[in-house]
Amino acid sequence: MTVHLGALSRSRRATKRPLLDVVAEVLLAQPGASLAEVAEFAGISRTTLHKHYATRDELVRAVGQRATEIWEQAVDRVADEPGTKAGLRQLLAAMIESGPQLTFLWRNPALDEDNELTRRYIDVENRCLAVLDRARKEGVLAATTPDWWLLQTLYALVYTAAESIQFGKLAPLDAPDLALSTLLNGLGAPATGAGSGKPDKGESE
Amino acid sequence: MTVHLGALSRSRRATKRPLLDVVAEVLLAQPGASLAEVAEFAGISRTTLHKHYATRDELVRAVGQRATEIWEQAVDRVADEPGTKAGLRQLLAAMIESGPQLTFLWRNPALDEDNELTRRYIDVENRCLAVLDRARKEGVLAATTPDWWLLQTLYALVYTAAESIQFGKLAPLDAPDLALSTLLNGLGAPATGAGSGKPDKGESE
DNA sequence: ACCGAGGTGAACAGTCATGTTCGGAACGGT
DNA sequence: ACCGTTCCGAACATGACTGTTCACCTCGGT
């Protein structure tokens, strides 16, 4: 039951990107892909793949580890930023850029089995939250939003933006701004006469 | 390689809910679950499961069909609503309620193979969009947001809310309002002082 | 008491992914 | 020219899941 991996197939193959990145994408598009398929799309033989990662489980965990690593670096890059809109924008940009890896991480409950990975996950999530908290204290984010909802919404927007980019609907350079604006202001009609200048028709509830 | 389905297992088992609903949840938590596992969590024998749906593919497609059906009904229920906040709230409520089914639908690229299902999917998505469009014309939603971003954001919020409910973080009755508020206003700090104006501290970007 | 519908457990053949082994090719360094 | 490393293709044993069959049970209706 080979489901086509469509757009992925030819373009990415045989390029010299980090192996685990390719694996993450394949396994994301086709969670049930066989190791033979994964190897093919990575441009190596199944034997070689097995030599690097003895079992499928080991491979999946390696991808998870790398995804976490990438996330950690993304958060680190904005750790010193003040809690401003610009800081948030940078966090979003960094996370959206790593969209596939993060999505892989978020979508694989099986990774929870790995204790060290779970520890690092919780850790980086907390650091992520710390950034958001700073923005909250700066008055950029609403003070009343619960932590978990803030985080989940952030994840959701990162995921959506990354997916839109992959589908070609969204220009990579537009993504951070769009996501940030949606996160902060939502998609409701701007308040009439408000700061962002949009003289509109009357309020309409 | 049995990964535990944790919270799902005992509580739901053997209850008399529609079979396909249980299947959707199991297959969502554990996409690689064997039919034996699926049957067990549905509280029936594998033989019986096979009698209803001859092959795994057929089962998956049936779940997809049902998910689409549920979505159609949810949209139908608000099709006559005017494009007000209340109307949007109802759409969100209906969709969040069907969270697991919709998530299953959104996450299974394999379902695209089914032409009829794809047709119905596109159709209900368009009707969904029509509801949003009406809200846009009423000035509830920003006029400038592209259709696809609006839809994707809606999906993201529905998914996030449903997941939060499943994790016990969010009370089902609170979900629609939280999602609606996030969709319309985002999570930024509310405008200070005036009703909707924004005489704020220095802009930070 | 009979009967049919729907459910069950046991068993079986077929298929496929997995993990492993091995002989050999290619390549770079010495 | 030699050697170690790395990759490769082929082949194999194993195990898991699948789909199917069959004999049996257990109800509810007649």
Automatic annotation (TrEMBL), chains A, B:
It comes from the Bacteria. Residues 34-53 bind DNA. Keywords: DNA-binding, Transcription, Transcription regulation. Residues 13-71 form the HTH tetR-type domain. Signal peptide: none annotated. InterPro entries: Homeodomain-like_sf, HTH-type_TetR-like_transc_reg, HTH_TetR. This is TetR/AcrR family transcriptional regulator. It comes from Catenulispora pinistramenti.
